[in-house]
Specification:
This protein is α+β, with helices and mostly antiparallel strands and 143 residues long. The chain has 2 helices and 7 strands, in the order H-E-E-E-E-H-E-E-E. Strands 1, 2, 3, 4, 5, 6 and 7 form a 7-stranded mixed beta sheet that branches. A hairpin with a 2-residue loop joins strand 3 and strand 4.
């Protein structure tokens, strides 16, 4: 699921920012600014009821601007990110982004967004998976 969410984010970014490179792996050298770097953060899963779970996939989208007038450029990109990442396509379904926030740190825009999913886990029934084998009990009476 994490990979599908990342694909949905990169597709949405590609539609909104056609001329800007999008990276999904760490950049060692040779950064071609302006560009985006999409990085998954710590995913979580919480049990809600019985076999229902909520999974959260937070992402950091970093925007590396051109060097001149970066504050204005980052602010403009941030406004567009709120719109283009509100709904993304994940395997043919529209998924809404939550907890969106952005801030400029060291001349780079750091934008965070989380996508939540409900998951139902199928468990084997008691008949399908024998929880207990046959139990034999022998009682010896004392005289």
């Amino acid at each position: 699921m994490l990979h599908e969410v990342k694909i949905g984010i990169t597709k949405s970014l590609g539609k909104e920012f056609e001329q800007i490179n999008i990276y999904t792996d760490n950049i060692r050298q040779g950064l071609d600014a302006p560009c985006f770097l999409v990085t998954p953060l710590i995913s979580t899963e919480e049990n809600l009821l019985d076999n229902r779970y909520e999974r959260s996939y937070p992402f950091m989208i970093q925007y590396f601007p051109k060097k001149d007038a970066y504050q204005e450029e980052c602010a403009e990109v941030q406004d567009k990110l709120f719109n283009c990442l509100e709904y993304i396509d994940v395997s043919g379904n529209a998924v809404r982004g939550n907890d969106m926030s952005g801030r400029i740190v060291n001349d780079i825009l750091n934008f965070e967004v989380t996508y939540n999913f409900m998951v139902w886990k199928v468990r084997a029934s008691a008949e399908e998976s024998e929880l207990m084998q046959t139990l034999e009990q022998h009682i010896i009476e004392k005289e």
